[in-house]
């Protein structure tokens, strides 16, 4: 579980926020609050077991000295092992307030509870060879382990693994989340992510996904005001039907399946429109009451598919592109999409993303932001860590959705869920759809198939009213 709606900042942004606070209060006071937050979490889990606190050379270590002192004062059996002398003024001050022994990290004996205060946002290179195995051993031998701010060995801004141990029980993020808490290896290394407010105001356009605030339809609502969604069917009708079903269960007022022939199947409330070609679709999409168009699920990649995609791109309507539409766009995605005036959402998985935006470098947040800015669209870059980025630089990250979502058709359901939010006029449609889709998966329990997901959307919606 990741704290919802929490700001996400890079190491440099966190340092800047800290510096602003240090201009009006001593750094030691902030470090006391950081250490106290660590001590509170550790004492919740320690249940009287002996505690080993690891202290590194910087302020992460400084937090560790504070936590150790407070835990000892509260009656816990605490030992400290340091990787070296404290190297910052604040850390030295906190080291000075510790009245017990400080052992060496390399001779430390394992204890049931471990606190990792070796490195935090100041980690700038892979853990030195001597440290990584010692830390890994101490974590493995502990019953409960808590990382201060970050597991030591995790790159703050990318989540890349610089020697971090596996098996940390929980990580207490200080002041704000960092990308490492929500991306990539961080997902496997941080354990339960907790967030401590230590009085450092943080502004960020990047946040973890929060549960959306939704509203029931007004008394005068009708099927058009709740949103007319058109899903374009292609080669594989099942995929488009899944998206249509999700749009209906996800709150759309009226869903139309634009298909070449009557492929049957799907709810009776699903309206069918015979569309044989791109020209037919172009005519149909002149209907200005349409709130969202979905193209891609099961579209296929033949000439008819190309014609349908082109008609949708040229229509001045909110458009959601998924699956085969993204493959057909390929490297020319940005060129095609920049020309559009109506809003557009892309829902690629990593393979589709890499094919469309092969020039994007760096971590997943950076690359998704670049793609959104270049194509002037909102990108929902799916994965174990789903990153949503808008052309205005907003980022939402959803991590740790059910791993059972790794089954065919769940992407079609996301596209339909998104269409319902777009057609319903939700200004945070992408974040809402990501949350609803993940919540429906959690409600569906283990081993669900994509067809089961839409029926959990109403319950997910009810939790947002
Ligand atoms: N977020 C907050 O509100 C607060 C955070 N605090 C804590 O401070 C750390 C960040 O502290 P910092 O001193 O910047 O750095 P670290 O403690 O993470 O790292 C210590 C130093 O270690 C050196 N270093 C970097 N990588 C390695 C490595 N692989 N092996 C050995 N040494 C390494 C580096 O110095 P160099 O000069 O050697 O590069 C680091 O400076 C933050 O995470 C919080 O825990 C404060 O409490 C204030 C409030
Ligand atoms: K740490």
From TrEMBL:
Homology family: In the N-terminal section; belongs to the NnrE/AIBP family. In the C-terminal section; belongs to the NnrD/CARKD family.
Matching Gene3D superfamilies: 3.40.1190.20, YjeF N-terminal domain
Binding site for AMP: 382-386, 411
Keywords per UniProt: ATP-binding, Isomerase, Kinase, Lyase, Metal-binding, Multifunctional enzyme, NAD, NADP, Nucleotide-binding, Potassium, Transferase
Residues in YjeF C-terminal domain copies: 206-464
EC id: 4.2.1.136, 5.1.99.6
Cofactor(s) the protein needs: K(+); Mg(2+)
InterPro entries from the UniProt entry: Carbohydrate_kinase_pred_CS, CARKD, Nnr, Ribokinase-like, YjeF_N_dom, YjeF_N_dom_sf
Domain YjeF N-terminal: 14-206
Keyword Transferase attached: yes
Protein name in UniProt: Bifunctional NAD(P)H-hydrate repair enzyme
One of the GO BP terms on file: nicotinamide nucleotide metabolic process
Cofactor: how and how many bound: Binds 1 potassium ion per subunit.
Annotated residues for binding of K(+): 60, 116, 152
Binding site residues for (6S)-NADPHX: 59-63, 120-126, 149, 239, 298, 349, 412
One GO MF term: ADP-dependent NAD(P)H-hydrate dehydratase activity
A matching Pfam family: Carb_kinase
Quaternary structure, from the entry: Homotetramer.
CDD domains: YXKO-related (cd01171)
Catalysed transformations (reactions): (6R)-NADHX = (6S)-NADHX; (6R)-NADPHX = (6S)-NADPHX; (6S)-NADHX + ADP = AMP + phosphate + NADH + H(+); (6S)-NADPHX + ADP = AMP + phosphate + NADPH + H(+)
């Amino acid at each position: 579980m990741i704290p919802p709606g929490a700001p996400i900042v890079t190491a440099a942004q966190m340092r800047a926020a800290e510096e602003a606070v240090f201009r009006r209060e001593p750094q030691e006071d902030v470090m006391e609050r950081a250490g106290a937050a660590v001590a509170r979490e550790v004492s919740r889990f320690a249940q009287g077991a002996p505690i080993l606190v690891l202290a590194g050379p910087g302020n992460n270590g400084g937090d560790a000295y504070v936590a150790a002192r407070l835990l000892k004062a509260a009656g816990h059996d605490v030992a400290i092992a340091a990787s070296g002398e404290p190297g910052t003024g604040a850390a030295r001050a906190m080291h000075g307030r510790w009245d017990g022994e400080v052992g060496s990290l390399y001779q430390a004996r394992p204890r049931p509870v471990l606190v990792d205060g070796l490195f935090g946002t100041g980690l700038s290179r892979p853990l030195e060879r001597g440290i990584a195995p010692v830390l890994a051993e101490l974590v493995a031998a502990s019953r409960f382990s808590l990382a201060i701010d970050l597991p030591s060995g995790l790159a703050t801004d990318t989540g890349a693994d610089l020697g971090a141990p596996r098996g940390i029980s929980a990580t207490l993020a200080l002041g704000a989340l960092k990308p490492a808490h929500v991306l990539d290896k961080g997902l496997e290394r941080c354990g339960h992510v907790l967030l401590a407010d230590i009085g450092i105001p943080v502004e960020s356009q990047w946040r973890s996904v929060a549960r959306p605030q939704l509203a029931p339809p007004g008394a005068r609502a009708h099927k058009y005001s709740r949103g007319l969604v058109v899903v374009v069917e292609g080669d594989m009708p099942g995929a488009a039907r899944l998206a249509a079903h999700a749009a209906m269960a996800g709150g759309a007022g009226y869903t139309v399946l634009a298909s070449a022939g009557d492929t049957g199947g799907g709810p009776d409330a699903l309206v069918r429109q015979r569309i044989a070609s791109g020209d037919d679709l172009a005519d149909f999409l002149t209907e200005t009451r349409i709130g969202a168009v979905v193209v891609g699920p099961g579209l296929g990649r033949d000439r008819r598919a190309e014609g349908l995609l082109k008609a949708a791109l040229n229509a001045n309507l909110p458009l959601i592109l998924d699956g085969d539409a993204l493959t057909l766009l390929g490297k020319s995605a940005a060129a095609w999409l920049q020309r559009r005036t109506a809003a557009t959402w892309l829902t690629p998985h990593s393979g589709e993303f890499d094919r469309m935006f092969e020039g994007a470098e760096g971590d997943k947040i950076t690359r998704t932001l670049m793609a959104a800015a270049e194509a002037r669209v909102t990108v929902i870059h799916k994965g174990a860590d789903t990153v949503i980025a808008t052309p205005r630089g907003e980022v939402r990250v959803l991590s740790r959705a059910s791993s059972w979502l790794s089954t065919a058709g769940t992407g079609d359901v996301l596209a339909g869920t998104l269409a319902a939010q777009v057609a319903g006029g939700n200004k945070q449609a992408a974040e809402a759809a990501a949350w609803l889709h993940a919540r429906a998966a959690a409600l569906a329990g283990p081993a669900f198939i994509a067809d089961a997901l839409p029926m959990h959307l109403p319950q997910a919606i009810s939790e947002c009213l």
